[in-house]
Amino acid sequence: MKKFLAILATVIMGASALVGCGSKDASVDGGSENLFRTVDEIKSSGTVKIGVFSDKKPFGYVDENGEYQGYDIYFAKRIAQDLGVELEYVSTEPASRVEYLKTGKVDIVLANFTVTNARKEVVDYALPYMKVALGVVSPESALIKAPEELNGKTLIVVKGTTAETYFTENYPDVKLLKFDQYADAYNALIDGRGDALSTDNTEVLAWAIQNPGFAVGIEEMGNVDTIAPAVTKGNASLKEWIDNEIISLADEQFFHKDFKETLEPIYGSNVNVDSLVVEGGKVE
């Protein structure tokens, strides 16, 4: 019996060690613990896990060669480089971003994550690196030029986005057709299952350029917001590291270079770089 108890105790101790390895209990939110890794733990592991989109061109997407590309991806690569670790992409959907952080599935979210007061309650944002508002794209033959024109019509949105929240709160007479994936949402617009689609204006402008027959009738709607990296609530060391990274990158105008490499080939001269890019975390 003594031998059995000794073996059992060893098994329990080993299991406890495995549970605690590579993660850290954070603040309690809604009765459940948040999990995260500090900067030192990330460096010790040799890998940083960053949540990105795989279908939101030109910000985060997988190209024809199976490689991640886009504005957010360009930044993710630099973060991994300056941390001195390998980069592991974790594909996420808009509605999964918060959950992936809370459960420790990712260390950072770089998935076109618009800063809102509600989201600040559940994640910690670093300094912003982009500005954004909402836009609406629709067929040129039935162009939507004002949100009131959508009353009684069907608007396509992606779950967990600011577009879903904005129209739910401000235009209850608009019928929302919701999807988990951006690719499915745009396919629904092409197929005529909705009268228009709303998401970040930066994205609908890029999509309309690449899809003849569609145009952005509403180029800016709602507040002008910012997009920023997000970390798990309470992960002060990683937030501070990213803040310092964004500040230091201003010296080389990093995000202007990012725009030139990833967005300018799409937008051409249709978008003013300074209307979108934020350097050093300072919104002007």
Describe this structure in words.
The chain has helices spanning 2-20, 39-45, 71-83, 97-102, 117-120, 162-170, 182-190, 201-210, 236-249, 254-267; strands spanning 24-29, 32-36, 47-52, 55-56, 60-62, 68-69, 86-91, 108-109, 123-125, 130-139, 154-158, 175-179, 196-200, 214-227, 230-232. The protein is an alpha/beta fold. The protein has 2 domains: 23-129 and 228-269, Periplasmic binding protein-like II (D-Maltodextrin-Binding Protein, domain 2, 3-Layer(aba) Sandwich), CATH 3.40.190.10; 132-225, Periplasmic binding protein-like II (D-Maltodextrin-Binding Protein, domain 2), CATH 3.40.190. It has a 5-stranded mixed β-sheet with strand order 7-3-8-15-9. It has a 5-stranded mixed β-sheet with strand order 12-11-13-10-14, with helices on both faces. A 3-stranded antiparallel β-sheet has the order 4-5-6. The radius of gyration is 21 Å and the shape is globular. Residues 1-23 and 25-31 have low confidence and may be disordered.
